[in-house]
Amino acid sequence: MSAILDIRDLRVTLRRGGHLVRDVSLSVNAGEVHGLVGESGAGKTMIARAVLGILPDAVKVSGGKIGFRGDDLLQLAPKRFRALLGREIALIPQDPLTGLNPARRISAQMTDMLRHHLGQSRQEARANALRLLQEVQIRDAGQVLDRYPHELSGGMRQRVLIAIAFSAEPSLIVADEPTTALDVTVQKQILRLIRQMQERHGTAVLFVTHDLGVVAKVCHQVTVLHTGQVVEQGGIAEIMSTGAAPFTRALMGATPRYDQPADALHPVPAHIHRELLAAARRFDEANP
Ligand SMILES: Nc1ncnc2c1ncn2[C@@H]1O[C@H](COP(=O)(O)OP(=O)(O)OP(=O)(O)O)[C@@H](O)[C@H]1O
Ligand SMILES: [Mg+2]
User: Fold this and answer.
1) What's this model's pTM, rounded to 2 decimal places?
2) Residue 206 maps to which CATH number?
3) Does residue 240 form part of some domain?
4) Residues lining ligand 2 (ion), CB within 5 A?
5) If pLDDT is split at 50, 70 and 90, which confidence band does 282 have?
6) How far is the CA of 39 from the centre of ligand 2 (A)?
7) Which ligand is nearest to the CA of 36?
8) Considering the domain boundaries, does residue 211 fall inside one?
């Protein structure tokens, strides 16, 4: 299978020194959802931001390559890189409010993308925006186009962002905790929607989450990250089986619902998550 995204030996470090991500390799194949999972602070967001070229000022890539359809994104001229973003590589952010401009109507934010990246006329773009909102199952799509982000619920805003992400038919979507900010029931619907859209459009997705239960629901492949390093990698069935590495098992323990129906998706309370991670670390230390 052909890799759309091929990250090799990626190192991300603080400019003042200190590793955040060490020698991480992973590839996302065409049409596949690749889960990137690990504890809080493991480096998941740094990897996602390295792909999107939006690392914080204090942080830099200090090694490796990020292959995207034959190019190394790290070597690409800024102009070419910007042309890829939104068009070929799109983002579904964690917080639907920060992903949208509060001062502009949904129609303007959606048609910008279609006009700018695809050169559509105002009329064409509006018709396509309407079609896209219907595709992400927004009722009264025509009315929603004329609303401002604060007039929509969190779930609706996330649907709009998903519509925008898919609008230019990118080959890769990076989704960083796209459902963490949502209520549990809405979370489930949004996960299903992402998976449906991804299948329909054949898009490769790098899906960042701290929740193995979510990974089990939406991903084909998974990379388990622990303190900036890959602990385990492979097909979802393989990893979820009893052969998993101790750290992965501890993460599974933190999400005991991974093998239950989609209705059972709940975020793990932070204190339990922390306790399990501490247990996993003790286990790792005792079993080097
Ligand atoms: N802006 C920043 N400047 C410097 N260091 C940062 C910055 N943001 C994050 N870090 C550090 O980088 C490391 C990895 O953080 P990252 O945000 O990638 O974790 P994560 O796996 O996404 O965690 P979470 O599940 O909490 O989102 C952490 O040690 C964190 O403290
Ligand atoms: Mg993060």
Assistant:
1) 0.87
2) 3.40.50.300
3) yes
4) 45
5) low
6) 9
7) 1
8) yes
Enclosing domain of residue 261: 29-50+78-88+168-286
- Please write the tens of the pLDDT for every residue from 27-58: 999 999 999 999 888 999 999 999 999 999 99
Residue 279 has pLDDT above 60, yes or no: no
Distance 120 CA to ligand 2 centre (A): 35
Q: What gap in Å lies between CA 179 and CA 35, rounded to an integer?
A: 14
Position 264 scores a pLDDT of 36
Distance from the CA of 37 to the center of ligand 1, in angstroms?
13
Q: Which residues have C-beta within 8 Å of that of residue 13, sequence separation ≥ 6?
A: 19, 20, 59, 60, 62
pLDDT of residue 261: 39
Q: How many domains does the chain have?
A: 1
Of the candidates 68, 70, 50, which has an alpha carbon nearest to the alpha carbon of residue 59? 50
From 45, 47, 57, 224, give the residue whose CB has the most ligand 1 atoms within 8 Å, as the site to mutate. Answer: 45
Smallest-distance ligand from the CA of 267: 1
Ligand nearest to the CA of 44: 1
C-alpha to C-alpha distance for 252 and 215, rounded to whole angstroms: 11
* Residue 280 lies inside a defined structural domain of this protein: yes
The answer to the question of residue 127 being in a domain is no
CA of 143 to the centre of ligand 2 (A): 34
Length of the chain: 288
